[in-house]
Amino acid sequence: MKKTTCRPKVYLETSIPSYLASRPSNDLRVCANQNISLDWWTNRRHLFELYISELVIDESSLGDAEAAKRRLDLLVDIPLLQNNENTKQLATYLVEKGSLPAKARLDALHIAIATVHGIEYLLTWNCTHIANAIMRPRIERACRDCGLEPPIICTPQELMEG
To answer: pLDDT for 136-155, tens place per residue?
Structure first.
């Protein structure tokens, strides 16, 4: 009998392809994040089922055409999760509940898409509104208030070990 392996599911927020496709930065922190992202992409991504949404495609398409092409090339074979009425309602609730500020509506939508589709990890370098130690408990509480289990929100560095 063939043994099936269940790989954990990871939603890639737009900052991941952005870091992977960007030119090396002179900023030490950004450069370190780029290197960690590349290490995770090269050595660890095969351990997970990756997912994105149309929102990731849309955001990755913005800006410099050459950079956008590099970002989009990374995303070619990754399955899309649908943005639907449930994801929109949860995103609205995340903002209305105060889990995220109104200016972070798109960030709320990333979280909602991953949550509604039962994704285990949301991978991001957005530490302002998503992978933020102050906001994370609020986000998790709001998702659970809606009867949903939130993904573990983390950076590639946090998803390296295990």
So the answer is: 999 999 999 999 999 999 99
Q: How many CA atoms lie within 13 A of 143 on its CB side?
A: 26
DSSP 8-state secondary structure symbol assigned to residue 20? H
CA angle (50 as vertex; 19, 78 as ends), nearest 5 = 85
DSSP secondary structure code for residue 43 in this structure: H
Burial class (CB in 10 A: 0-12, 13-18, 19+), 83: middle
pTM above 0.85, yes or no: yes
Summarize pLDDT for 86-99 with one digit per residue, the tens: 999 999 999 998 88
| Tokens matching residue 126 | 């957005």
